[in-house]
Write a structure and sequence with these properties.
By secondary structure, this protein is of the alpha/beta class. It contains 15 helices and 10 strands. The protein has a single domain, classed as Glycosidases (TIM Barrel). Strands 1-2-3-4-5-6-8-9 form an 8-stranded parallel β-barrel, surrounded by 7 helices. Bound molecules: ligand G3I. Ligand G3I binds next to loops.
Amino acid sequence: MGAVVVLVAAVLAWALPEPDGAPRGERPGLARAHGIALGTAVAVDPLGGDTAYRELVSGHYTSVTAENTMKWQYVQPERGTFDWSGPDAVVGFAEERGLSVRGHTLLWHNQLPDWLAEGSLDAGELRAVTREHVDALVGRYAGRVTSWDVVNEPFEDDSPRLRDNLWYRALGEDYVAEALWMAHEADPEAKLYVNEYGVEGGGAKADALYELAADLLDRGVPLHGIGFQGHFVHGNVPEDLAENMRRFVELGLDVEVSELDVRIPEPVEEEDLAAQAEEYRYVLESCLAVSRCVGVTVWGVTDAHSWIPEWFPGYTAALPFDGDYTPKPALAGMVEALRRDRRPRGARGRGVR
Ligand code: G3I
């Protein structure tokens, strides 16, 4: 009898509508039914102390990415001294709520500790500390973090040239392959990604990424996927997103939209939010239209947590929840895409989570 009451209560809780009209749990359920991850980037502070934030994450998403706390600056602030408090909090929360975790990120030119950023290590030392870092981080979460952004933003901001970062300077262009091998050795099961921005539509930078990916695969390097970040400006979302992702799939790769947001210039009007919903719907539909697009992750939980206002003054409202944690039309746009496309679970590639 008690079990029946619990079951009925659980079903009612699942079915109760939320402010946007979608039943509680519909989005994760729909995403799982499609075999894609619907993710969000999370920050450690609200994850620790903000119950509404935690509920919002696990009530609407199936996957999390650590927005900052797995970056080198936080994980290894001093050489040889590791701080696992943030990454453990993210992975622990995800496990408690049944969410998968994208690991972000191993080699990136930003958010490095001073001891590494100053660039005083020679090639041998840099190789050794990189291996040590990758072993420690990827190894610690082996089997618990599904995929890693092994190299983040390897190309220059506005050009198709490999970025002149500290690994490129010391090790040459093959540092990308070296890093992928290191991550593979630390967790042979993890899906390994190159993650980049400004490559979501076709163009010289996307072509250069394609050439890099093709070359790595030709040489048997363990590259499994490409993350297309997806930091879009409202009104300027590329129309060839699916087409561009598809050519990478044809190489044998999984693809994801890994850091989606759509920033709007102030002042934000109702009609902007309605048009933004169409843009979110379009991105979800693009992913669903590509056989091995394994997920879409939005870059932050609410507009109060978004990186946009700090980095792009004059722009705001980039995410599917507003600063009061209220769902915006963008959330409904994603749901609409998920409701429309009802391909069965299992229709996707090996990156399904
Ligand atoms: O850690 C300090 C903290 O000690 C201090 O009290 C606080 C005061 O503002 O700042 C904290 O640092 C901030 C850090 O995020 C952690 O919260 C920096 O100011 C802030 O600029 C930094 O921004 C992050 C940015 O990467 C750094 O480049 C954003 O939150 C994060 O969303 C963003 O994420 C990147 C992806 O990793 C890669 N793709 C692009 C994306 C957007 O830049």
